[in-house]
């Protein structure tokens, strides 16, 4: 059965990467959460998507220039609707506590891309996952494949996924070069061949961000290990129809 990961929680219905969005994904029965992480000025792991807070909060500036306490003062819900006014930016440990309690899966995407290096983010994230004893329920991913290679050097067991949006040649072989154990392709870089060969190499494929009903059905039928979607409730409804 294809698993369903709520992208940034349930970003299609709730303010992305907030506890409200994660609780919604859990409520509707998602198998896992996809979250994004940055480092704050005081070395805390903040759960947030963009490099700057401008798009989804009432603040301005780069996440890396805020302390965690300063980020906590921002409103991360009001931009979507008054109903979500007061939603906060979570710290990684809050989300891990929720994942532990709900006993679901978590995909932590490291946002150490472009000009943001975030030295030791890999070590810090791994330490937190271990502290919560969640290694078997965690997938670490990034568009920064050097970082994923570093993550593999730190830990030989944890599931590591490479994120990409290009049409790669033999990504199942490339994953092995990186030391990754899973593929997280953009949905437009998916091919049926990729599913077949990746399966043969025991490399799960989890496309993002699958919001369209027809595409959900297509990926369920292809036998993807999981999909990552902004609409976990919609995906679960379609999956249950598909299973009948
Ligand atoms: O992890 C899948 C997806 O979240 C990657 O892209 O930009 O939505 O973080 P983005
Ligand atoms: Mg992401």
Task: Describe the overall structure.
The structure is a single chain. By secondary structure, the chain is of the alpha/beta class. It has a single domain, classed as TIM Barrel. 35% of the residues lie in helices and 17% in strands. It has 9 helices and 8 strands. The chain has helices at 19-28, 68-72, 92-102, 121-131, 145-154, 171-178, 192-200, 213-222, 232-243; strands at 3-7, 32-39, 45-47, 105-110, 138-142, 159-164, 182-185, 226-229. The protein is globular and about 45 Å long. 45% of the residues are buried. The protein binds SN-glycerol-3-phosphate and magnesium ion. It comes from Ornithinibacillus halotolerans. Residues 2-239 form the GP-PDE domain. This is Glycerophosphoryl diester phosphodiesterase.
Helix count equals: 9
Can you identify the CATH superfamily? Phosphatidylinositol (PI) phosphodiesterase
Taken in chain order, the helices and strands follow as EHEEHHEHEHEHEHHEH
Helix/strand structural class? alpha/beta
CATH topology: TIM Barrel
CATH class: Alpha Beta
| Strand runs, count | 8
Proportion of beta-strand residues: 15-25%
What gyration radius follows from the Cα positions, in whole Å?
Answer: 17 Å
Biggest beta sheet summary: 8 strands, mixed
Portion of residues within helices: 25-40%
Examine the secondary-structure arrangement and name the CATH architecture.
Alpha-Beta Barrel
Task: Write down the overall mean pLDDT.
Answer: 96
What binds here, in terms of ligands, is: SN-glycerol-3-phosphate, magnesium ion
- N- to C-terminal separation? 12 Å
Domain GP-PDE: 2-239
Pfam families: GDPD
InterPro entries: GP_PDE_dom, PLC-like_Pdiesterase_TIM-brl
Organism: Ornithinibacillus halotolerans
């Amino acid at each position: 059965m294809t698993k369903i990961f709520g992208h940034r929680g349930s970003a299609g219905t709730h303010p992305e990467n907030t506890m409200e969005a994660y609780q919604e994904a859990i409520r509707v029965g998602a198998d896992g959460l996809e979250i994004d992480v940055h480092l704050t000025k005081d070395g805390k792991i903040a759960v947030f998507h963009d490099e700057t807070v401008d798009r989804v909060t009432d603040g301005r500036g780069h996440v890396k220039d805020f302390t965690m306490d300063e980020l906590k003062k921002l409103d991360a819900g009001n931009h979507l609707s008054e109903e979500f006014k007061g939603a906060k930016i979570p710290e990684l440990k809050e989300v891990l506590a929720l994942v532990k309690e709900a006993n679901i899966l978590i995909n932590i995407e490291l946002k150490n891309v472009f000009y943001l290096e975030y030295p030791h983010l890999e070590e810090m994230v791994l330490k937190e996952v271990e502290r919560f004893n969640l290694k078997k329920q965690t997938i670490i991913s990034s568009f920064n494949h050097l970082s994923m290679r570093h993550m593999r050097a730190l830990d030989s067991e944890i599931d590591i996924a490479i994120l990409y949006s290009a049409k790669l040649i033999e990504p199942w072989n490339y994953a092995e070069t990186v030391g990754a154990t899973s593929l997280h392709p953009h949905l437009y870089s998916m091919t049926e061949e990729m599913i077949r060969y990746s399966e043969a190499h025991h490399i799960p494929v989890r496309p993002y961000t699958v919001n369209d009903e027809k595409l959900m059905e297509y990926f369920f039928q292809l036998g993807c290990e999981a999909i990552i979607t902004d609409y976990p409730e919609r995906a679960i409804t379609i999956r249950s129809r598909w299973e009948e």
